[in-house]
Amino acid sequence: MKILISLFLLFVISCAPVRYQSNKILSESPLIKKSRPVYLVKNGDSLWRISKRYGVSVDDLMKENRLSSPQGLNIGQKLYIPYKYVNKHNASFIWPIKGEVINFFKENVDNTINNGLNIKITNNNKKVKASIDGDVIFSNYLKGWGKTIILKHGNNFYTVYANLDTTLVTTGTFAKKTQPIGTVGSGKNGDNILHFEIRKNSVPKDPLRFLN
Asked: Over the chain, what is the mean pLDDT?
């Protein structure tokens, strides 16, 4: 077990996220609204490409957004993703903190691919909650990540909580869903930003496909 955890941590370290130096919301990012994605169309997008990103059928995208044709998308146009696709993988993961997503999965941030979500808190509540029940397999400083907590869940799922100011759980303990496990840290600009990932084995997954 210790060997497997060590290998997982080595993989995580090799994919360290960007340092939290920017509070700029990228104009080409999807947005969050009422727990479902709202995609903001950017240059080069097509309805087919967006459908593949979210695992949505083109027909359902057209129906949800009352589009008469799959052609003619406009840059900056908002496309709502049908609810039935948002949590189709697992509806039991909750948001670890309330806030505004400023960097999304697989975005290029400062020449680094983001393997999760960067969430800026918009109130004074800095407590980070366990997204789902899990074993605490790591709770310490991690190079490139700052103070970090990693939880192991059933079916070889892991959640990663990085850029923390404090940790409230220790390695080898068990964290219940919604339990406070740490407090979010600040970035260069003073914003409190949590880096959050969901992984299957060691492979990063888009958290928006799991969060409820």
From this structure: 80
